[in-house]
Specification:
The protein is of the alpha+beta class and 197 residues long. The protein has one domain: Beta Barrel (Lipocalin). 17% of the residues lie in helices and 45% in strands. Strands 1-2-3-4-5-6-7-8-9-10 form a ten-stranded antiparallel barrel. Strand 4 and strand 5 (105-110) form a beta hairpin. It is globular, with a radius of gyration of 18 Å.
Amino acid sequence: MLMQFISPMTMMNFFRQSEGTWFIQRHVQHFDLVADESGESNLIVNIVEKTDPRVKTACEEQGIDPALAMGGASFIWQDNLDERQPNPDYAAVLIDIPDDEKGLTGKLIRDRGYVEKIPVISRYWFGKDGILTIDTEYDNNQGQERCWFINGDFRVRVGTVRTVNGINLVSYCSERRCVSQERLEQMIQRNLARNKE
């Protein structure tokens, strides 16, 4: 019997559901003369507990009381098939500051933004359908990202970047969870045992 997947409805639950390594296929449409950024990559997500010193640092940089933070997650991007250690220049830490105990809305503090590589505060909210929307105001751009899980191992992310001249970038990503070596070994052993029956 298959269990029905329940979408995470708080940021920390969203981060926990996202923990692990994801294979991303992305398509990026620029409306100006910027090189195509479409391609494949890996995204590595790890939980950041509220006691982690990065939480305190990120909050204090934005003038926010670290006691309001619920924790967060670290994100690091890597070219698919790149066997080197991930480059810290392609990393960010996001800290969750919910508006209330329900956690459906709140602020996300990023130690560096996706569009402009500076510390930034975003607003987030979860819709009744489980779709997470994140709005970010940069110095010269406005970004919006929407993300939702199709099931526990597949999610979709779409984004736009708007300038004073209108939308100049649209992106679409499909993201599949990578199977860990340990989990792969378990699956192989289970199948071998099944063949012996």
